[in-house]
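Dear all,

This email documents one entry for the complex benchmark we are building for the journal club exercise. For each entry we list the sequence lines for every component of the assembly. Then comes the predicted three-dimensional structure of the complex as a token string, followed by one or two observations. Please use this as the template for your own entries, and keep the labels exactly as they appear.
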Amino acid sequence: MARAVAVVGVGQTHHGRRMDVSYPDLVREAVVRVFEDTGLSPKDVDGVVSGTMPSMMEGVALTHLYFAEAMQAIGKPIFKTETCGSTGVSIAHTAFYWVASGMAEVVLAVGHEKMYEGDSQATMTTVLDPFYQRYFLAGAPGVFSMQSQLWATRYKLPQEKIRDAAAFISVTHHQSAFYNPYAHIKMKVTMEDVKNSRIIVYPIRLLDVCPNSDGACAVIFASEKAAKRLGRKVAWVKGVGYRGDEQFFGDSDKVVWQSAIEAAKQAYDQAGIKEPLKELDVAEVYNPFTYQEMMFYECFGFCEFGKAPDLVLRGTFSREGELPVCPSGGVLCTNPIGATGLIRVAEAAMQVTGRAGEHQVPGAKLALAHAMGGIDQFNGVMILGSEL
Amino acid sequence: MARKLTDRPVWIKGFGTSLDAYWIGDRDLLQGQLTIAAKRAYEMAGIKAPFEEIHLAEITEPYAFQELLWYERLGFCGPGQGGKLIDEGVTERGGLLPVNPSGGTLAWNPYVSRGLHRAVEAFLQIREEAGEKQVHREVKTALVHGTHGFAGQCHTVVILGS
């Protein structure tokens, strides 16, 4: 790995339905907060990286041009990295590499989305080629349902067991969201509520699924020299990994999912992690769908393939479990897509620096952040730790 | 790694990019950010006198007048002097500082890849592999330029060298 890089501070908007602000002001809210958090000012920033969903979402192309003022980026070098759902992690990687290379000391990463001004499912259709795939793969629920059923069939998982495990996950995350001031959906749900909510695409029901959210997230990455000058606990980037699959869905296995497995493996290797379930204290996994979340646990080596539902029902991944997953409430409760991956990074950084407030996992030292992009096409991972 | 892949690598000697304000009324459309982007690239490459030290330039000029403006902002000549370089044939293929022997963006403009095309053209010139487009002077140092956004809201300059 190149030179050491840390996340020195974060800023998030209050995610939700933000008809009270314009899109630039939504972005501004997160950017102002990261400067407040770190005590840095725009003049300290050497470069800016931003990203968001394809332009069809809000009908704005080249958002980095539109948000020059909101991001305090005038006169600064700017990069844009966009990988659909994994955008937030991709911009974190871009900022990390920029500082790690020695070409910048301080980089601001900004992810954002204003989904109440757009149509997420319609936008996602434009991700798929129009000749072969768009008609039957377009939109997230159908794809993730197909993927989940493939998994259940392969490992002969009884429908009732995965149904219960998914509901358990939904209840856990909805509870956690109450302890996160920035989370969008704050709703008391029971196992019965989840299992009886309306069907979206079998077996996925309404409470198994993320909301559309407006939100932005800003994270500052800095070199060791710049981080030490701040005199506060920072979150060191211990490992990164990113992989992509083929565009054509049928060309690779989405259960033993190579892009997820290899992205995590590269990050683990760089971080020196051999037993993720034991060594990680928190995992902010990209989890817009409860069923798919369990598949990520398996691909990331938290358990063997086919075994995730058992561990879920034993409470292994609950807030007091061996490896708390998404104590922030996760994507299931908050999903401003362009920001979501970066929020995972921000939450992981907050955990290992003891700044997660009411949803702090006590003593957290090593955290995983992850996001998936495209139609099950890309996966990106970043490991953050309290020690250099 | 570069030396493993080729015995004639072309090095990235300098890089600079800069973003202007979004709202047109808040910008100076003639000054812009190109000078700042170029300055960052020149500093990194150790270039103090661009007109003397750069042997060839491939710049992104979707409008003909912008080529003249970019000459000035890149420091090839003083403000308002861009036309002189044309009159004196300085930036022609056989001139002191050939600009866009490829035909540049005015010849072809695939918007997102056009900057990369400039880099490829400069690379080929340095390696003397530009075929009919080849200029007949030694090109050791080339400037590559890209821009996007209205009236050049964002500029990027790269210096390539053998």
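Observations: The interface with chain B takes residues 48, 62, 64-69, 73-78, 103 of chain A (CB under 8 Å). Chain A is about 35% helix and 20% strand.
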